[in-house]
């Protein structure tokens, strides 16, 4: 049995599927409790039904991006583990980046068939440990942080966007800059740890994805089409992947 066959075994599907099923049951329980609470508060039943329908509708296309992440990682990590990660607590940009960074430190590359059980264990452990701090810090400090947000909101005449917003923006800018820098360095040097070294395809994909995201932001903020925010990530990913296929072909 190969490593990929082991990662796609029935046991892995059973373990990961049981956890995903438990989370799904919890979601249903909370939905039922929210429905009952809405009726107890005298909310209009028709409006609640519309809210459920709208939420379900606008969750379909954004979930395409999650599916793409599962498919992208399944070639190296199997289907059950990425499915579990991206169904429960993981984020698309986080899971793919951490898995790729961990594989790089192990001297392998995702998708090249070099995955071993030891490497998978290391990657899975790193993916789990790095994301658990959000839950821990929220449990310890979330109540105090929410109180601070309520005191410093626009209602008191203070400017919106505090340290948290700036730190998040700085983190993403730094992360994007690091990746683009690696693409440029690989293209110029023509050698390195990346499989795309010497290729301009990643740079073209970045440009296409950025333009598509800019278009989503323009129509969302300037044209009053706020509902497009739900589709910006999935749309940018799909267009970027399409550009990679067309350029590579």
Overview of this structure, please?
It contains 9 helices and no strands. The protein is mostly helical. It has a domain at 1-160. Helix 2 packs parallel to helix 4 (80-88), helix 3 (45-77) packs parallel to helix 9 and helix 8 runs antiparallel to helix 9.
Give a brief rundown of this model.
The chain has nine helices and no strands.
**Number of helices in the DSSP assignment:** 9
Please estimate the helix content.
over 70%
User: From the alpha-carbon coordinates, what is the Rg to the nearest angstrom?
Assistant: 21 Å
The tally of strands reads: 0
Task: Output the keywords.
9 helices; mainly alpha
List the helices and strands and how they pair.
Blueprint: H1 3-7, H2 10-40, H3 45-77, H4 80-88, H5 92-105, H6 117-151, H7 163-189, H8 201-221, H9 232-248
């Amino acid at each position: 049995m190969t490593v990929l066959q082991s990662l796609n075994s029935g046991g892995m599907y059973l373990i990961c599927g049981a956890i995903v099923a438990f989370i799904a049951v919890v979601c249903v329980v909370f939905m039922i409790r929210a429905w009952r609470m809405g009726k107890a508060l005298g909310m209009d039943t028709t409006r609640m039904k519309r809210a459920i329908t709208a939420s379900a509708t606008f969750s379909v296309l954004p979930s395409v991006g999650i599916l793409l992440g599962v498919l992208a990682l399944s070639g190296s990590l199997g289907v059950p583990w990425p499915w579990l990660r991206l169904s429960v607590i993981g984020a698309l940009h986080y899971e793919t980046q951490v898995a790729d960074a961990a594989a790089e430190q192990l001297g392998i590359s995702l998708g090249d068939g070099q995955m071993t059980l030891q490497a998978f264990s290391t990657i899975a452990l790193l993916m789990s440990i790095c994301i658990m701090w959000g839950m821990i810090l929220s449990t310890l400090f979330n109540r105090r942080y929410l109180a601070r947000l309520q005191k410093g909101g626009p209602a008191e005449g203070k400017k919106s966007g505090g340290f948290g917003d700036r730190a998040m923006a700085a983190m993403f800018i730094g992360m994007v800059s690091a990746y683009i820098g690696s693409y440029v360095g690989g293209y110029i040097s023509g050698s390195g740890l990346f499989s795309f070294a010497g290729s301009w395809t990643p740079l073209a994909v970045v440009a296409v994805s950025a333009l598509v995201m800019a278009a989503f932001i323009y129509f969302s903020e300037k044209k009053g089409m706020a509902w497009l925010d739900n589709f910006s990530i999935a749309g940018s990913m799909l267009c970027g992947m399409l550009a990679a296929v067309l350029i590579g072909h």
